[in-house]
Amino acid sequence: MTQHEGVTDGGVAANTRTIEASVVTDFSDRMSYGGYLDLPTLLSAQRPISRPEHHDELLFIIQHQTTELWLKLVLHELETARDLLRADELGRALKCIARVKHIQKTLTEQWSVLATLTPAEYAQFRGVLGNASGFQSYQYRAVEFVLGNKNAKMLQVFEADASATALLRHALESPSLYDEFLRLLARAGYPIPASVLERDVTLAWTFTPELVPVFAQIYGDTTEHWSAYETCEELVDLEDNFQLWRFRHLKTVERIIGSKPGTGGSSGAPFLKRALELTFFPELYAVRTEIPG
């Protein structure tokens, strides 16, 4: 008898794992993995339109579909974090932000998969995209809005989609994550200017120098102001990760199409490069210049 013969239930014989007797195999009247996830719908949503079908179009579709799924979760977590800040539940809000940071890393790493698409390969099916472009991702715009980088003019891109417009308008007209953090600080006794608390939240956040001394106080004694300090650093992480994603997007586009215009009508790489100049929490970077040492 070899060492693998005579293995009891649950073991391995002939390099084959035995299915344990307790494993459920009859799903005629039970919830299954595929049923719970609605896999028939999910896995039938990849429909390449190049003819003849180009091998690499499936990669292109899955890359963007998975990005949209992650963006859905990012938006879910950021909106919850914003609501928790409004309710002064800082610890739970930070848990949501921590999850977003992990998702951001995954999103950034995904660009390396798309970067395996060579210029010659992409050119063979790019024409079938028409004017479809990631610029039209309403979830991405909603994430930007929740983080404070609002632009009401973006809504015109989504006028043909009532549900997307409604989602974006809600994000536009609601306080951002940063707005709610500053309001929390004000309730905690920090000297947040009234002009900040009463600002028009439909406008993009712009640098407010009056906030820098407030953050200098927090960074000047991190032990005394630990909760506020920790939140500031979590927000900086969010922005750093977002900028890394933008940069990786830019470099992937440059690698695949060079300086060609985007399918959605933008200038392409130059347009993406300008996005790196956008900011969410500028005072949290400015305060670093004020810290002694």
Give your account of this protein's structure:
The chain is an all-alpha fold and 293 residues long. It is built from 13 helices and 2 strands; from the N terminus they run ββααααααααααααα. The chain has helices at 33-37, 39-43, 57-86, 90-114, 119-123, 138-146, 162-173, 177-187, 194-197, 212-220, 226-257, 269-275, 282-290, and strands spanning 12-13, 16-17. A two-stranded antiparallel sheet has the order 1-2. Helix 4 (90-114) runs parallel beside helix 11 (226-257), helix 6 (138-146) runs parallel beside helix 7 and helix 10 packs across helix 13.
What would you say about this model in short?
This protein has 293 residues and is mainly alpha-helical. Helix content is 56%, strand content 1%.
Key descriptive features of the protein:
293 residues; single chain; globular; mainly alpha; two-stranded antiparallel ribbon; 13 helices
